[in-house]
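quick one before i forget lol
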Amino acid sequence: MIKNISFTALSLVLFMQLNAQISTDTIRPSNTEIVKPIHKVDFNNGNQCPERKQGGDPKMINGYQVFNGSMDGNRQVDPQVAVGGGYVMEGTNSGLMIFNKKGEFVQGVSQKCFNDGIDPKLAFDIHNKVFLFDLWWYYDKAKTKPVNISVSETSNPTGAWNTYPVSRTEEVDGGGIGYSKKWIGYSYPGGVENTFVLRMAEAKAGKPATIYHFKGSLGHPVFVQDAIDDLYFFAIEKDEFVIRKVSEDANGKPYCLVVSRKPHGLKYMNYPPQSPQKGTEQKVSSGDRNPKNVVYQNGSIWFSQAVNCEGRSAVQWHQINATTGEIIQTGLIKSDVTNYIQTTIAVNKKNDVLIGFQEVNENSFISPRFAFRKGKDSLGKTRKIVSVGEGKGATDGVAWGDYSGSIIDGDNLLDLWTIQSIANTKGRGETVIVKVPFK
């Protein structure tokens, strides 16, 4: 009896402490709505969507499997990639394409088949074994500017999908998507309510989904690869790294807590300058110091960014303790004679890391690159840069989109993949997809 009373008392104390934390440090949803899905019979809606066929042609370059993705882009391709169920799925501003893991074309459709939109962000949810992506549609006639969250019902992306059009009338640009075992999260710039979450179980089943909107931005949603329910968000706010998470209370309602807020103390953190290219005075965008994808793996937050390093664009990457916010390691990929731009990161279950990016300078065109490290390598170090193609022409404008995507293989949780843009002879954006195997 004494032990039971003691346990009950302790439980009460912990419950009171949790409630106190929730009541004083919590961000609650500011608005809730129910959104019904637009059901798709299959990937191309019963052959109602015209096929978009291109890419493939797998080959080995510098020892790695490389194949073409989309080849019909301009300066705003915005390519992303997700891998799982034996498939490689690519999204761009022109639509979606599916390949097998050998790099052979399977199927492709326009983004119009998913309620239209641009600025895709893709992932394969390794817990629920489904693909998910978002498309933001600014030009809809109703002017609701929907964010279309699409989720496959199985790990086969050629099968059934459910699309949830979430009205975002004040959206000003495409945002980012993330997931955990329980939640899908989306955040975007502009407006008052900048972040929303919904339950993965509802979306996967094609049920009407409750959308929970939060005021202000919680940060960039994270690919939570550890098997936990909480959905994490990461932000760079002035000179601080800020980690937040969305949890569920005893009544099943989501709320957000600040996990950590730490000054980063890093030398290189300013936005990168525009980068020169061969044969023209026209410079191109180098990317953003804000990450384009963020990973939670083995209790750490991982991301890469483009930064100003002594007047040139360089790639910087980080591993951060997801509980304390302390930096575990930081690495810098830089050069005095060239520029590394448009970066993303992928991390596997052994803490092996792939960093994808492009290279461009006064004597070259935009070209795909990557570097990697093994989990046991010295902290902050990557191995030599690998080239997987050479650009052939100069682009005619500054904009170069979110021209990079990197992701874990959702089947073996070891191999890492990246999609990178490459400038063709006309300076337009084509893409290459690369598999980097790990044991």
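fyi Confidence is low (pLDDT under 50) at residues 1-24.
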